[in-house]
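Predict the 3D structure for this chain.
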Amino acid sequence: MQPPANRKMQLEYPPNLNATYANTALISHSAYEFIMDFIQMMPPDGRARVQQRLIMTPTHAKLFMLALQENIERYEAAHGVIAVPPRPETLAEQLFRPVPASKTPDTPDTPDSPTDDKDDE
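Done. Predicted structure below.
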């Protein structure tokens, strides 16, 4: 099977096309589609309004992700790395993280240090 030939696409922009600003997105999926809600949050009161909803097949969603990744790499090559804030912990991470061992007054500073029993003889 031959790969598809590169096709030129003729884009048409309607005269009344409006750009939409979104600073948050929610992404969900089913077995057959990815749903992306683009949201504008208004601090400080936390109001959020869905501005656009895009629905794509899984194949198109992955192609979109690859195209976005390629463009981000180009952007960072030209303008520097985009700083991303740390992700907040999920509820599962909060509930199931290991509990740090509490230090008691009897506990030595180095738990693996050998005890010297010769002084007790």
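The beta strands are 24-29, 34-42, 47-56.
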